[in-house]
Automatic annotation (TrEMBL):
It is a multi-pass membrane protein. It is found in: Membrane. Keywords: Membrane, Repeat, Transmembrane, Transmembrane helix, Transport. SUPFAM superfamilies: Aquaporin-like. This is Aquaporin. It comes from Saitozyma podzolica.
Length: 406
């Protein structure tokens, strides 16, 4: 039993050749048309390997130089703040039975400002080159949310650590005295406390980076300002207790330059990594819930509530002729500055024709001037309405057969 054939397949001409075979490759009037196979959409091709390698190299160079500049100025400011000669506001407060050492808030503010402003400027410079991350923990977070590929993230982590070491070496070579910028726990701060402090401070910084820089919106161009302020606020808390690392490269570089390592230095790696992971998970959760639909898409102008002047018409209501034709909302000839040039000229000519028609009608009869009821603009220039020439304008439906004298 043979399979059923399509009707077009069983039709033949007189020569025994199938009609479809006979006409295959022939277009209208029997003209031969070459057969062009249907184009099958292809997957987007990856850029050439040479271009990929070049992009990786450029990103690594930008990230290395940016990390060096960021940490060099931050280390320099910290070294100035912690020099013994600048400790003018620190002192002791006498108690009943003991003496309490107070924190030097001037130094803490100085260090926080040095890190915050240094990150702001450096990230703004290298934002379009490598992303302006300067932090292995941030690179980890960007890879978790899919902004960076794993290969690019690993390459950036390597140059960020090298940048931290270079910055610490430059500051140690240029400034007299020992390099006093290592991150250490303050007396009374346990290792577990330091770990969670570093974790939550890095979460704060990572959230600022994800929602201001990774998430594209109208304020993305000033994202480095918000990120720098976030680091400034984190340093205001973290410097006193943990040294305010939030960055493995920031802690590892000075330790290498000073040849000193503490037994708890691992918290400056694990804490920021946990913070970046926590922030990335929260970001992905909000993206899964499509948080953009809560307030709606961004608009150039704020939405005005209905009922106020300039508010958009409610859905389902008919628009007025003035809203259909911009620039015709005024009486008389109106203003045409806001309407396109071609539309405003047509509307002006139609309006002039209507005025001339009325003037000719008023002076043509001998009963004196007459007044016709005013027609709506939709009748004159409305969408879909025919444009009448002078002398062919229809009579107003509301007017009597004879014009009413004034």
């Amino acid at each position: 039993m043979s399979l059923p054939q399509h009707q077009a397949d069983v039709e033949h001409n007189g020569n025994g050749v199938g009609v479809n075979e006979h006409n295959k490759g022939r277009g209208m009037f029997g003209v031969h048309v070459p057969h062009v196979p249907m184009a099958i959409p292809k997957k987007p091709e990856k850029p050439p390997m040479s271009l990929q390698v070049k992009n990786h190299v450029v990103a690594m160079i930008g990230e290395y130089v940016g990390t060096v500049l960021f940490l060099m100025f931050a280390f320099g400011g910290t070294n100035v703040a912690l020099a013994p000669e600048t400790a003018v506001t620190s002192g002791t407060t006498a108690g009943d039975q003991s003496t309490i050492q107070t924190g030097n808030t001037s130094n803490l503010l100085y260090i926080s400002l040095a890190f915050g402003f240094s990150l702001t400027v450096s990230a703004w410079i290298f934002f379009r080159v490598s992303g302006g991350l300067f932090n292995p923990a941030v690179s980890l977070g960007m890879a978790l949310v899919g902004v960076l590929t794993p290969l690019r993230a690993c390459l950036l982590v390597v140059v960020q650590i090298l940048g931290g070491m270079t910055a610490a070496g430059i500051v140690q070579a240029l400034t007299p005295g020992p390099l006093n910028v290592r991150t250490t726990l303050s007396p009374g701060t346990s290792v577990s406390r330091g770990l969670f402090i570093e974790m939550f401070l890095t979460t704060w910084l990572m959230l600022a980076i994800l929602f201001l820089a990774a998430e594209k919106h109208k304020a993305t161009f000033i994202a480095p300002v918000g990120i720098g302020i976030a680091l400034f606020m984190a340093e205001m808390w973290g410097v006193y207790y943990t040294g305010g690392s939030l960055n493995p490269a920031r802690s590892f570089g000075p330790s290498v330059a000073d040849h000193q390592f503490n037994g708890y230095d691992w918290i400056y790696w694990v804490g920021p990594a946990l913070g970046a992971t926590l922030a990335s998970g929260f970001y992905l959760l909000l993206k899964w819930f499509e948080y953009e639909t809560v307030l709606g898409p961004e608009t150039d102008q704020p939405q005005k509530p209905s009922g106020q002047p300039g508010a958009p018409a409610a859905q389902g209501t008919a628009q007025t002729p003035a809203s259909q034709h911009p620039g015709l909302e005024q009486t008389g000839l109106g203003t045409f500055t806001d309407a396109p040039v071609d539309q405003s000229q047509d509307a002006r000519l139609d309006r002039i024709e209507s005025i001339l028609l009325r003037m000719s009608s008023n002076t043509s009869n001998g009963n004196g001037p007459t007044r016709f009821p005013r027609e709506s603009m939709s009748t004159v220039v409305g969408e879909g309405s025919p444009k009448h020439a002078i002398g062919q304008m229809p009579a107003s439906p509301t007017s009597p057969t004879q014009p009413t004298p004034l």
